[in-house]
Amino acid sequence: MVRKERFGVTSDGQAVERYIIRGMGGAEATILNLGGIVQELRVPNREGQLQNVVLNYSSVREYYDEDTCYLGACVGRVGNRIGGASYTWNGETYRLEANEGPNQLHGGPNGFNRRIWEAEAGEDSVSLRRTSPDGEGGFPGNLTVSVTYRMTEENALEITYRAQTDRETPVNLTNHSYFNFTGREDHIFRHPDDHLRSERTEYAARSTPTGRLLPVEGTPVDFRTPQEVGRDAFTPDPQLILTGSFDHNFVLDGSGFRSVASVYLPETGIHMEVLTDQPGVQFYIGNYLAAPHGRNTGLCLETQHYPDSVNHADFPSMMLTPGEEYVTRTAYRFSVR
């Protein structure tokens, strides 16, 4: 069941609606047509009560005019960083809009997170659509995009991304929800995290990849077996110092739609499993979260292609060509232990 409500109006007069999706398993997701934002995700805890597990804001103003953290948003045209806000493809260099020093982050200063999308509700889903025009953010080609959010009987929020273009262009769409299972504004350090991966991308200054892959074994970011997020979050590891703690892309094992990570908080019993068909996931613990949320009060698991892939030929390609369709799926599945 999907219920539509008026949420507010942006500072430049655009109407913002929210869609509350209630799944057969009882969980609920609230999606905004602004930025494809997951404003709430309410799942059963051990007591059988619905509990919101994502950080959010209460007003359009906070999302549209004040947010610097991409809270809950669909980010694109290219999620994560593009070094130097430029790339060269087939001999032509494309200059993009920078918004993080010399780099472009999450599509630039006016990326998908700040756009109003057309919405269509289904029985257990809502689909958002927009066309990103040629030149938006500096990217070539008219890109038609759809994002479908569905609540399954298994209490999973399933997100399916689709895109087509009339010119070759990079595409890397992801969701930027910050998860916190405590039910209050609290650090996420006690959340045990279990990630099924063995390598990560190495970073240079300003969190752009060098092109090398590093093993996680023997490092603070070895999450192949469960450990509390805060255990090694602030050890003097050179890679953690560069990013202010965990903010790293991990190379995922396997292929196809598979389970790649899980998070659990014993005090509420909430367990989340992440499934995706993507080759990487960005693990970030809110090192730069801004008021009203405190630092490290939410963790992100952003399924993706590797950061700056357009500038590294050895990374999986994120280029989309005319006649092809970009399709990728991610699910955040909840249960109680």
Description:
This protein is mainly β and 337 residues long. Helix content is 4%, strand content 43%. It contains two helices and 27 strands. The strands form seven sheets. A nine-stranded antiparallel sheet has the order 11-12-13-14-27-23-22-17-20, with no helix packed on it. The longest helix has 7 residues, at 60-66. The protein is globular and about 60 Å long. The two termini are 27 Å apart. The model has no long low-confidence stretch (mean pLDDT 96).
Q: Which structural category fits the helices and strands?
A: mainly beta
Please state the average pLDDT score: 96
Count of β-strands: 27
- Give the biggest beta sheet: 9 strands, antiparallel
What proportion of the residues form beta strands (DSSP E)? 35-45%
Helical residue percent band = under 10%
Strand order of the largest sheet: 11-12-13-14-27-23-22-17-20
Question: How far apart lie the N and C ends?
Answer: 27 Å
Encode the helix/strand succession as letters.
EEEEEHEEEEEEEEEEEEEEEHEEEEEEE
Write the layout of secondary structure elements.
Elements: E1 2-9, E2 15-22, E3 28-32, E4 38-44, E5 50-52, H1 60-66, E6 74-75, E7 81-82, E8 86-89, E9 92-95, E10 104-105, E11 118-121, E12 125-132, E13 143-151, E14 156-165, E15 169-170, E16 174-175, E17 192-195, E18 197-203, E19 209-215, E20 227-228, H2 238-243, E21 247-252, E22 258-265, E23 270-276, E24 280-284, E25 300-304, E26 319-320, E27 326-336
Antiparallel strand pairs: 1-2, 2-3, 3-4, 4-5, 6-16, 7-10, 8-9, 11-12, 12-13, 13-14, 14-27, 15-26, 17-20, 17-22, 18-19, 18-21, 21-24, 22-23, 23-27, 24-25
